[in-house]
């Protein structure tokens, strides 16, 4: 009896060991759940919050050895997208008949404070530009208020000098949690740690701060009452816009060579939304004042949507089911072409 019990225990132990070993092997080779690589790729940046601080430089047109028009592009993921930036570069070259050097600083989740720092970096690297195009997005309000307001650093004169990632306690907590979960030689332990982190610790963080979901990020433009509920947030956004525009206007020959552009999201253009909120023209109102205060140029697509997209507006302009309304390739090409058409390049 004891011998049989002992054999059963040994068999069960071997079965458990083999199962654990098999699970460990599967976790090491699977691609469904990311359990490694976080220590090797850090998002931290001491000035620009996240990203590597690089620019994507590309020449458009011909005879680029005979002088170039220098163009700086700034924005978040909309400008980071190759279709919009390429459309602008190609149209610039076609309209001027000259070589255009496009320096693209568009970066995911950036907003005016970081556009300013990125433009300053570009100016220090490439010198003055002939034109600067900055695309302002609806998400820039939430990014300014929720992500960059607290970690922003200023010098003794009040000038913005950096948005260090290490000062963003919220984002640092998320990243450090990933590093902690990955810090084991056994992938099974990593899986348990990641599960605990995302199912217990992260929801606790969300409870005491905010959830980075659609509703939290876009609430600042929701109709009908965002304008009255978030006056402080909107004022902060307007201040950062003005600060950005004032400094980058010195990076071109004259302030009017800075073009602040804006394309509303789908929810800001239609009359009814079956599921969700409509958007108020908060960003349009904010950028309209820049023209008078800083004398830069403002190109707001809101009142030109039908001219830009025509019948394709609702069926081939925005990526389907994207709550943040990123443009399709065709939509981005039309928007980029319209921007350049509004610029006097004669």
Give me a quick take on this structure.
With 346 residues, the chain is of the alpha/beta class. Helices cover 47% and strands 11% of the residues.
Task: Give the helix/strand class.
Answer: alpha/beta
Helical proportion?
40-55%
Report the principal-axis shape. elongated
What count of domains describes the coordinates? 2
**What separation lies between the terminal Cα atoms?**
99 Å
Assembly annotation:
single chain
Strand content: 5-15%
**How is the CATH topology of the largest domain named?**
Rossmann fold
Relevant CATH superfamily of the largest domain: SGNH hydrolase
Poorly predicted regions: none
Q: Count of DSSP E strands?
A: 10
**Gross CATH architecture of the largest domain:** 3-Layer(aba) Sandwich
Strand order of the largest sheet: 3-5-4-6-9-10
Description of the structure:
With 346 residues, this protein is α/β, with parallel strands linked by helices. The protein has two domains: 1-32; 44-168 and 212-341, 3-Layer(aba) Sandwich (Rossmann fold). The protein has 14 helices and ten strands. The protein has helices spanning 2-29, 77-80, 82-96, 112-126, 140-148, 169-182, 187-208, 214-218, 226-229, 231-248, 282-288, 290-294, 305-309, 329-341, and strands at 44-45, 49-50, 56-60, 69-74, 100-104, 131-135, 153-154, 160-162, 258-262, 297-300. A six-stranded mixed sheet has the order 3-5-4-6-9-10. Strands 1-2 form a two-stranded antiparallel sheet. A hairpin with a 5-residue loop joins strand 7 and strand 8. Helix 3 (82-96) packs parallel to helix 14 (329-341) and helix 6 packs antiparallel against helix 7 (187-208). The radius of gyration is 25 Å and the shape is elongated. It starts with a helix and ends in a 5-residue tail after the last helix. The model has no long low-confidence stretch (mean pLDDT 93).
């Amino acid at each position: 009896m004891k011998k049989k019990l002992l054999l059963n225990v040994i068999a069960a132990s071997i079965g458990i060991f083999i199962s654990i070993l098999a699970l460990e092997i599967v976790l090491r080779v699977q691609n469904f759940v990311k359990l490694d690589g976080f220590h090797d790729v850090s998002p931290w940046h001491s000035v620009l919050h996240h990203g590597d601080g690089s620019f994507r430089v590309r020449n458009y047109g011909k005879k680029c050895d005979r002088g170039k028009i220098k163009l700086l592009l700034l924005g978040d993921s909309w400008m980071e997208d190759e279709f919009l930036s390429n459309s602008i570069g190609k149209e610039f070259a076609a309209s001027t008949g000259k070589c255009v050097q496009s320096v693209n600083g568009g970066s995911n989740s950036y907003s005016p404070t970081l556009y300013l720092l990125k433009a300053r970096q570009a100016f220090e690297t490439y010198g003055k530009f002939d034109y600067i195009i900055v695309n302002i997005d609806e998400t820039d309000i939430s990014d300014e208020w929720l992500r960059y307001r607290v970690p922003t650093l200023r010098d003794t004169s009040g000038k913005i000098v950096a948005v260090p990632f290490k000062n963003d306690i919220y984002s640092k907590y998320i990243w450090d949690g990933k590093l902690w979960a990955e810090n084991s030689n056994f992938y099974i332990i990593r899986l348990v740690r990641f599960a605990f982190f995302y199912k217990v610790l992260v929801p606790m963080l969300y409870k005491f701060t905010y959830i980075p979901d659609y509703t939290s990020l876009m609430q600042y433009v929701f109709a009908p009452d965002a304008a009255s509920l978030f006056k402080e947030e909107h004022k902060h956004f307007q201040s950062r816009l003005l600060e950005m525009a004032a400094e980058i206007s010195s990076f071109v020959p004259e302030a009017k060579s800075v073009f602040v552009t804006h394309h509303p999201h789908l929810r800001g253009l239609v009359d009814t939304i079956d599921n969700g909120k409509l958007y108020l023209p908060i960003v349009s109102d904010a950028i309209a004042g820049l023209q008078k205060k800083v004398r830069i140029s403002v190109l707001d697509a809101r009142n030109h949507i039908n001219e830009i997209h025509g019948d394709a507006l609702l069926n081939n302009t925005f990526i389907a089911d994207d709550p943040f309304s990123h443009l399709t390739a065709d939509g981005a090409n039309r928007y980029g072409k319209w921007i350049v058409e509004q610029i006097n390049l004669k």
